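call fold(seq) -> tokens
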Amino acid sequence: MALGLQTESGGGGDFAEIVKFDSRAGRMFRLDRAQDAGGAWQTNNVEITNDFQAVMDLENIQVGWALFAAGMAPSFALVPLGQALPNKPSADHKQAFKIIMKLGKSCGGDVREMVSQSKAVIGSVDALHTQYEAGRLENPGKLPIVALKGSTAVVSSGKGQTSTNYQPIWEIVKWVDRPAELNGVEAKAQVASEPLPKTEPVKAAEPAKTLANVDDEF
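ret:
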């Protein structure tokens, strides 16, 4: 089922643990939050591009609207995929999705969520969900292990300017029973405001390393 989202141009301790695909650089990060010696919350961006594998709860993907603005808490209006999209809360809200997942051991092994407004990422998750829909009838009660195989450049232009973003390439590599950690999980959707470090894009045709054996990761 398509996500129904457009892809064409036209308090510290309560932060949920998240992962983020940076479409400007074509890289995946795990955002770890911890308190410093003074008690302030800090975010450490840990790159997991080359190791990324996760059991994604695509059965419970949410879609709708999100607003990320400096100096304010993120705002969301999300519903389970298949329900009518909620009303857009404000002119500044943009279409977004949320997926809960359990990371493979090599990239953390814990439960995270991914929320994105990027058109490049939305388009890739739309295609991933189509893969999921095609395979789930043969894998009842199971969830897919999804690997990041690389990224492709998406060039857009408008108002006399050209920009390049990177669309992740996802692949379902195996189906497994739903992990106990994903039973009844409903994480608070929050995103840290600190910018991600500048990095060079990953070329889809040149993976940096071989992924760990999927059977050793989960």
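Confidence is low (pLDDT under 50) at residues 8-15, 187-208.
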